[in-house]
């Protein structure tokens, strides 16, 4: 919960740009800022806000939607600010006539919901759980590709068993090796569990 001395940064995060609505609860001042998305810029924005809030004993809140970028932001801001990850799927939709989606509208919406105490917050999984999720997603993708390859191979006529057998072996071995390489790159310590997760 915020206090009247705090500064709130409602952010629409993109790979290239950040659109930030900065609201000072103490003065009531609201500013719209735009920066390139870099760790240095994120740290600078938060540091400036922390210095401003510290004059009246306030804190800084960084609010953003639950995109893939929030772990990078969390690392960049460290303990300087509190990261709030909004679950946009649970946020109420505006009437259909006003359902335009822009960065400015999104930041205004995050700020309004947070100030009203009705912002739905998303779970922030730890790094280990995120690794496991990526590994499962990679395996799912490879299994899907393997199925597509098998279906493609099975389209060959049954009167060419040698060709079919040769292609089946090569393609499946290649997919298996690709999965093992991906497994090692995503989770280097996974060699012990690779046999349990064979494609």
Kindly summarize this structure in a few lines:
The protein has helices at residues 39-54, 70-77, 103-116, 127-153, 161-186; strands spanning 7-13, 17-24, 30-36, 60-65, 82-86. The chain has 199 residues and is α/β, with parallel strands linked by helices.
Uncertain spans, ≥5 residues at pLDDT below 50? Answer: 190-199
For the largest beta-sheet, the strand count, sense and barrel status come to: 5 strands, mixed
Percentage of residues in DSSP E strands: 15-25%
CATH class of the largest domain equals: Alpha Beta
Q: Determine the mean pLDDT.
A: 82
Count the E strands: 5
CATH architecture of the largest domain: 2-Layer Sandwich
Radius of gyration: 24 Å
Give the overall form: elongated
Task: Tell me the span between the first and last alpha carbons.
Answer: 47 Å
* Tally of distinct domains: 2
Task: Please provide a written account of the structure.
The protein has 5 helices and 5 strands, in the order βββαβαβααα. Helices cover 46% and strands 17% of the residues. It is elongated and about 70 Å long. The protein has helices at residues 39-54, 70-77, 103-116, 127-153, 161-186, and strands spanning 7-13, 17-24, 30-36, 60-65, 82-86. Strands 3-2-1-4-5 form a 5-stranded mixed beta sheet, sandwiched between helices.
Topology:
Blueprint (H helix, E strand, L loop, with lengths): L6 E7 L3 E8 L5 E7 L2 H16 L5 E6 L4 H8 L4 E5 L16 H14 L10 H27 L7 H26 L13
Parallel strand pairs: 1-4, 4-5
Antiparallel strand pairs: 1-2, 2-3
Helix pairs in contact: 1-2, 4-5
């Amino acid at each position: 919960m915020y206090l009247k001395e705090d500064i709130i940064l409602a952010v629409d995060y993109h790979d290239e740009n950040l659109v930030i609505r900065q609201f000072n609860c103490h003065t009531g001042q609201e500013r719209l800022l735009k920066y390139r998305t870099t760790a240095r810029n994120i740290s600078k924005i938060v540091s400036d806000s922390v210095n401003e809030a510290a004059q009246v004993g306030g804190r800084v809140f960084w609010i953003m939607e639950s995109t893939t970028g929030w772990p990078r932001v969390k690392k960049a801001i460290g303990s300087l600010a509190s990261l709030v990850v909004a679950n946009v799927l649970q946020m109420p939709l505006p009437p259909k006539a006003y359902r335009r989606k822009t960065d400015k509208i999104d930041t205004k919406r995050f700020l309004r919901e947070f100030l009203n105490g009705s912002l739905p917050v998303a779970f922030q999984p730890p790094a280990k759980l995120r690794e496991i999720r990526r590994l499962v997603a990679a395996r799912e993708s490879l299994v899907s590709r393997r199925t597509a390859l098998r279906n493609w191979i099975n389209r060959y006529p049954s009167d060419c068993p040698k060709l079919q057998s040769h292609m089946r072996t090569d393609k499946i071995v290649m997919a298996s090796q690709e999965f093992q390489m991906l497994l090692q790159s995503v989770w280097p310590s996974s060699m012990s569990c690779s046999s349990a997760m064979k494609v």
